[in-house]
Amino acid sequence: MIYDLIIVGAGVFGLSTAYHASQHSSFSSILVIDKYDIPSPISAANDFNKIIRMEYTDETYVDLIIEAIEEYWDNQNQPIFNQCYNKCGRITVVPPIDNPRYGFELDCLKLLQSKKYNKLHGAEKLYTDISINGKFSNIFTMANSNINASENNNRPSDAKFRFNSDCGLGYAAKSLENVYNYLLKHKQDKVAFHLNDGIDEVQSVVNNNEAFVEVRTEKHEKFVGKKVVICCGANTGSVIPKKYMGNEIRATGLYVGHIKLTDEEFQKYRKMPIVFDSTLGYFFPPDSETKILKICACASSTFDDKSECYLPKYGQNYQHKLPSSSIKDIKTILLKYLPDLAYKKIIDGKICWISDTSDSDFIIDELLEQGISNCFVCCGDSGHAYKFLPNIGKYVTQRITGELNEMLVKKWGFKSSNVLGGNQETSLYQTIDVNWPSVLEWRVEQNNIAIDNLDWVNL
Ligand SMILES: Cc1cc2nc3c(=O)[nH]c(=O)nc-3n(C[C@H](O)[C@H](O)[C@H](O)COP(=O)(O)OP(=O)(O)OC[C@H]3O[C@@H](n4cnc5c(N)ncnc54)[C@H](O)[C@@H]3O)c2cc1C
């Protein structure tokens, strides 16, 4: 059988693409392949929750997120997404004016409040108190001086607080399951799944002068599609060799920890907003089923230097462990914001891998230059793609069918200076800086240490 479309990877990009492609007349037969069950243990979105924010300085992503929120997340007629959305609001801890992130905060707000968008007027005000003038005084019961106490972790001591009630969270793993279940139930005539078998090779095949794409799995199966799209997130490099992708993408590992609350603690914090401290990390309201509260220590990240940052490093060696510096960061976050929970044991700490690009634009492009036609790659989420689960697949589908507007084709295309070209074997890695992703205005990792040089602690 030759499928109209094969989607490799059923994370955010892959499932969203399956959802939208199944509504497009060009695709009557779609095969979705994943190395694992859905939600995959290696999907960057396999966790309790993710932030859904509108704040961007780039109009493309503002347009995209407003569409995602208004048409899907916050729309009761879209239960797949709406049931996974909690409009809990977000407190941003705004650093002082001399911090690089300060400009980003200001520019985002300016853009959202511009004539074009006319959004977020409620988020204009800066407060000196994390209780936001008493709004959250039953939740943040510690003295404000606790937060503004200076210490030796570079965190500014005179931060202010902005509350944005238009921001929310997505129940991340559950939303992937919802899209999957919807496709199983309502699109079974068009969409089939082949799970628990990864793809390790993609190649062009020609049949009766027509070019198809063949994908080969680890269990030695072969599938042929008229079009193929590779949506393997941080693991894209396991399917597409570096010689094809050059310096377009890097796999970056981020750190996450969880704590489990008692019933009493859960009652106290269940209506909490997300708190985002750009220099330290962020945390979410506890999950209502498990009473688990998730904390991301975003001051640090990691990479695998053996693969020249190209591949993630999964495996037992890094499970239920965190680097000692991230444990310290998580404890600092708790002590500052939720001191009554600082005694808690961190459970289920993990590295979560994302696919970075140098400018945080996604890559949604065809591998034509690399000599494989009809094969597209969709990666480079740069740690901010979850919020677009409901709608990014619409644009991927348009790119595959040739309907995507020129501006977006270019924006999400390969940046040619980063690509090596199919026949070149030399690595350009030497020319890139180890701190390559951290030049982004909104990414705040101050420490980027190779995975094998970290001081790991069992949890
Ligand atoms: C700690 C952390 C916090 C984040 N916070 C936010 C946030 O607050 N808001 C936000 O919008 N985004 C956030 N993100 C980013 C978001 O999770 C990612 O952008 C998104 O998951 C990327 O989607 P993807 O489809 O590219 O990859 P993934 O979701 O990682 O999916 C990749 C899929 O490909 C499959 N796969 C991999 N290799 C193969 C193979 N060889 N063959 C077959 N299948 C394969 C995997 O099993 C997986 O299902 C965060 C990410 C992390 C790590």
Overview of the structural elements:
The chain has eleven helices and 21 strands. It has 459 residues and is of the alpha/beta class. Helix 1 packs parallel to helix 6 (172-186) and helix 1 packs across helix 10. It has helices at 12-21, 59-73, 79-82, 100-112, 144-148, 172-186, 242-245, 263-269, 324-337, 392-401, 406-411, and strands spanning 2-8, 30-33, 49-52, 85-86, 90-94, 160-164, 168-171, 191-194, 199-207, 210-217, 222-230, 250-260, 274-277, 281-283, 292-303, 321-323, 347-356, 363-366, 375-379, 447-450, 456-458. It is globular, with a radius of gyration of 22 Å. Strand 18 and strand 19 form a beta hairpin. It folds into two domains: 2-46 and 173-248 and 359-427, FAD/NAD(P)-binding domain (3-Layer(bba) Sandwich); 90-166 and 250-356, D-Amino Acid Oxidase, subunit A, domain 2 (D-Amino Acid Oxidase, Chain A, domain 2, 2-Layer Sandwich). The longest helix is centred in the first third of the chain and has 15 residues, at 59-73. Mean pLDDT is 89; it is low at 420-435. The strands form four sheets. Strands 1, 2, 8, 9, 10, 11, 18 and 19 form an eight-stranded mixed sheet that branches. Residues 8-14, 33-36, 40, 42-45, 50-51, 198-199, 231-233, 235, 238-239, 254, 256, 296, 352, 354-355, 379, 381, 383-387 line the site of flavin-adenine dinucleotide.
